[in-house]
């Protein structure tokens, strides 16, 4: 088993996982982080289950080579399709967390017998993982799901807080399946970047849930329980992408205002 100074490995298909990495860094500023954005394979949301699983396993292998003490699957699609395989691969070498359990548990706890909506990629929605996990804990919660496949690519391209994003977001949120809900889960780690626009649409009438902060708290809890919290200051933050994209640097400053040094690392063709 790794020690407290070993890094937390965090991965996503692109910039989305930075919402989770940012929340972890804010809550646990001493932790060493290794972030991997698999931009060469973005978007995961439209890929087959088997392919997404193989990407998750490939990245987890790299993070294990780097001796990470914990692997955070900071992507809902990869959490839906690769969590089992990654957990099996990792065994006792590191802790593994996904981004779906914390949000599903919070919704089940706070909205029993209520109607809630989930928006996410096609992959996450067709896996049925949110309704399954929520209903297991709270059978009375009615879960209605909508695939919103344009949102992650729109955000990855840097389109948010503008007219185009507003039009696309409104067109999705006004769909029949999302009416009369009391809460909505942003079931994709890219969506916290459009959280403000979603909140503006609902004008406080619908509670908006994203998992970034909940995952950060779960990370803290797991590290504490396993005596793996890093106490030394001056952490090392490493950010890798499998293909360099223009939008990555720009978006990163939302979560790491001091700026990040982005490096290309093609783990697929080393
Ligand atoms: N950030 C990923 C998620 O949470 C979605 C983006 C993609 O389609 O790759 O599902």
Tally of alpha and pi helices: 11
- Characterize the overall form: globular
Q: CA-to-CA gap between the ends? A: 27 Å
User: What is the gyration radius calculated from CA atoms?
Assistant: 18 Å
Total E-strand runs = 10
Q: What topology, given as strand order, has the largest sheet?
A: 4-3-1-2-9-10
Mean pLDDT: 95
Q: Which range best describes the helical content: under 10%, 10-25%, 25-40%, 40-55%, 55-70% or over 70%?
A: 40-55%
Helix and strand sequence: EHEHEHEHEHHEHHEHEHEHE
Q: What proportion of the residues form beta strands (DSSP E)? A: 15-25%
CATH class division of the largest domain:
Alpha Beta
> Which small compounds were modeled alongside the protein?
D-glutamic acid
Structural class: alpha/beta
Unreliable spans are none
**Sheet of most strands:** 6 strands, parallel
What is the CATH-assigned architecture of the largest domain? 3-Layer(aba) Sandwich
What does this protein structure show overall?
With 270 residues, the chain is an alpha/beta fold. It folds into two domains: 8-98 and 213-264, Rossmann fold (3-Layer(aba) Sandwich), CATH 3.40.50.1860; 101-211, Rossmann fold, CATH 3.40.50. It has eleven helices and ten strands. The strands form two sheets. It has a six-stranded parallel beta sheet with strand order 4-3-1-2-9-10, with helices on both faces. Helix 9 (195-202) links the parallel strand 7 (183-186) and strand 8. The chain is globular. Bound molecules: D-glutamic acid (DGL).
């Amino acid at each position: 088993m790794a020690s407290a100074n070993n890094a937390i490995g965090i991965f996503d298909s692109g910039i989305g996982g930075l919402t989770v990495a940012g929340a972890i860094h804010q809550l646990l500023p001493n932790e060493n982080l290794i972030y991997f954005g698999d931009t060469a394979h973005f978007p995961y949301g439209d890929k087959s289950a088997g392919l997404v699983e193989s990407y998750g396993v490939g990245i987890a292998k790299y993070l294990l080579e780097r001796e990470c003490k914990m692997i955070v699957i900071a992507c809902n699609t990869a959490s839906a399709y690769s969590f089992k395989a990654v957990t099996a691969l990792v065994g006792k070498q590191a802790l593994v967390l996904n981004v779906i359990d914390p949000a599903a548990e919070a919704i089940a706890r706070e909205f029993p017998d209520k109607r809630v909506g989930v928006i996410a990629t096609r992959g996450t929605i067709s896996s049925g993982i949110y309704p399954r996990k929520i209903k297991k804990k709270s059978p009375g919660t009615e879960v209605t799901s909508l695939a919103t496949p344009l949102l992650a690519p729109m955000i990855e391209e840097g389109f948010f807080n503008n007219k185009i994003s507003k039009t696309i977001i409104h067109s999705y949120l006004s769909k029949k399946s999302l009416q009369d809900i009391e809460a909505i889960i942003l079931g994709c780690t890219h969506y916290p970047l459009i959280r403000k626009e979603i909140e503006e649409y609902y004008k406080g009438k619908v509670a908006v849930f994203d998992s970034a902060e909940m995952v950060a708290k779960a990370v803290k809890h797991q590290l504490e329980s396993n005596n793996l919290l890093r106490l030394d200051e001056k952490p090392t933050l490493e950010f890798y992408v499998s293909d360099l994209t223009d939008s990555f640097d720009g978006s990163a400053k939302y979560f790491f205002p001091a700026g990040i040094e982005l490096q290309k690392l093609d783990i697929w063709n080393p």
